[in-house]
Amino acid sequence: MTTYKHLLVPVDESPMSYAAAEQALSLAKDLNCPVTIMSVIAVDPFVGVDFYKVAPAITDYFMQAEQNAQNRLAEIQQSFSREGISVDTKIIRGVAASEGIVQIANEIGADLIIMGSHGRTGVKKMMLGSVAQNVLTQSPVPVLIVKV
C-alpha cells in the first residue's frame, strides 16, 4: 500500500467539499501527514462580459469571494489543527478551478488530492463541466473523489 506524505484538499462552499475535508482529516490522522487545504477564486463567471460596464460588480464579487474563501479555509484549518494535523492553506486566483488544483498539487508536492464531486451526470455534466473529472484527467497524482 502506498503511504501518502502530503494531502491536498480543494474546497468550495459545497457540502461535498466539507465531506472531502472530513475524509482527508481521517486519513491524515491515520497517516500522520500534513495537509494543504485550498480554494480557487476563478474568473469563469465573467468570461465574455464587457469589463467596463461591470467593473464595480467584478470588484465586489472578487472581494466577497476572497473573504468567503479565507473564512472557509480558516474554519477547516481549525478542525485539522484541533486534531494535531499540520495544515496549510492556499488561495489561487484567476485560473480555472481544475487548473489551479493541479498547479497547487505540483507546487506543494502533494501525492494525493482529496476532493468532493457534485455527481452531475448527462446534460448537466456536459453543460456545466466537471472540475473533479478535469482534475482526474490532468493530475499526475492519485485523486480520491468523495461523493455525498
Automatic annotation (TrEMBL):
Primary location recorded for the protein, binned into one broad class: cytoplasm
Record keywords: Cytoplasm
rRNA-binding listed as a keyword: no
Cellular component GO terms held in the UniProt record: cytoplasm
SUPFAM superfamilies xrefs: Adenine nucleotide alpha hydrolases-like
InterPro entries: Rossmann-like_a/b/a_fold (IPR014729), Universal_stress_UspA (IPR006015), UspA (IPR006016)
Location of the protein in the cell: Cytoplasm
UspA domain boundaries: 4-147
Superkingdom in the source lineage: Bacteria
PANTHER family xrefs: STRESS RESPONSE PROTEIN NHAX, UNIVERSAL STRESS PROTEIN HP_0031
Similarity field: Belongs to the universal stress protein A family.
Protein name stated in the entry: Universal stress protein
Protein species of origin: Acinetobacter towneri
